[in-house]
Design a protein that fits this description.
- The chain has 62 residues and is mainly beta.
- It has one domain.
- It is 13% helix and 50% strand.
- It has a 4-stranded antiparallel β-sheet.
- A hairpin with a 2-residue loop joins strand 1 and strand 2.
- It is elongated.
- The termini are close together.
């Protein structure tokens, strides 16, 4: 998650939503949002390492 000052207000500007596959197919989903608006979806097959490569600037795991 990234918070920045927008029009004088501290707002959430970038966010990742990671959904673990519960169907057993081994494909998790990653959703990326900017300013609360959906931007893109990724199918993740190699876990968190793949996510870190896609969005290294977003510190999702801390």
């Amino acid at each position: 998650m990234v918070y920045e000052v927008v029009n004088g207000k501290y707002e959430l500007t970038k966010e990742l939503e990671y959904q673990i596959d519960t169907g057993g197919e081994g494909k998790d989903l990653l959703y990326y949002y900017e300013m609360g608006t959906f931007v893109r979806k990724h199918i993740i097959e190699n876990g968190y390492d793949e996510v870190k490569e896609l969005y290294p600037e977003l510190d999702y795991w801390r």
